[in-house]
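W.,

You were right to be curious about this one. When I first looked at the sequence I had no strong expectations either way, so I just let the prediction run and decided to look at it fresh. Below is the sequence, 321 residues in total, followed by the output.
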Amino acid sequence: MKRYRLAATLAAALLAFLPTTAQAAAYPDPLLLTGQEIIHDPTALHLKNGLYVAYSTGGIIGARLSTDLRHWDDAGNAFAEPPSWWYEYNDTADPWAPDISYRAGKYWLYYAVSSWGTNHSAIGVATSTSGMPGTWTDQGKVFTSETSDTWNAIDPAVIQTDGELWMSFGSYWTGIRMVELNPSTGKALAGATVHHLATRPDLPYAVEGPYIVKHGHYYYLFASYDACCAGVNSTYKIRVGRSPTITGPYVDSTGKPMLEGGGDLLLAGHGRYIGTGGESVFRDRGQDWLAYHYYDAEDSGTPKLGLNALGWTKDGWPSVR
């Protein structure tokens, strides 16, 4: 009987393992890139001057440029000097997780300033007519959080829809939140409701880095789950849910709410590509692209840029290619 129970237990464990293994094996590798691949929390866009730009955590918002999405060159930083107010949130004025977009005839660059392990944080915004490194003018704070709040004002991502402007954000604490912005200033409306979009059921509520896109009749919330920033020991992965309304509720393909830990697994570590996350989505010539970082297991866990084409199933769910 003991031998039978042991065999049954091993069989059950194997069955539980096989789908995960098969799914991981099916993940496509990112595009083969050359040049300056080192990056963290990338946001990318095809500029009107024909160049692709990617901004990231590191430096004073580090910048890279490309003519073809395949070869990337170091292009310095978004800013020559950090705005003075950044030092209120970080002794070294270190900005995190930028988000670039274009609307109203100019480029907008959102970013966060904070310190590890605290929600004394702020999201700021800068504008530029070209989107190029060194051309940004800082416009100050968009939204902040304090230690008395139950959310963390970092990892911003902006979406304009139906004449309204919204910003999702959040990391750990109670997960992913959203506020409405003033389209003229790009800053949070006075007294704006802080909507709750996604969280995990258990401490430390390890979900962050939201990004929302609209496809068809739905809004899709992409988010990074589990542990970032530990090189080859990182367990970051990208999950997604959708909602017919911008403020949710977002659910996965089984109907499980993202406010209850739901979310379809879109991309996880595989092979040399460990800890895939810090994602954003951009559209170029009719094609959606997923940009993210991974930790290269064949290069001492160095964070690098991952780019995959993003497709959509007949049921309207995203898939990486």
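Here's what jumped out at me. Confidence is low (pLDDT under 50) at residues 1-24. And, maybe more interesting for your project: The two ends are 47 Å apart (CA to CA).

Coffee later to discuss?

I.
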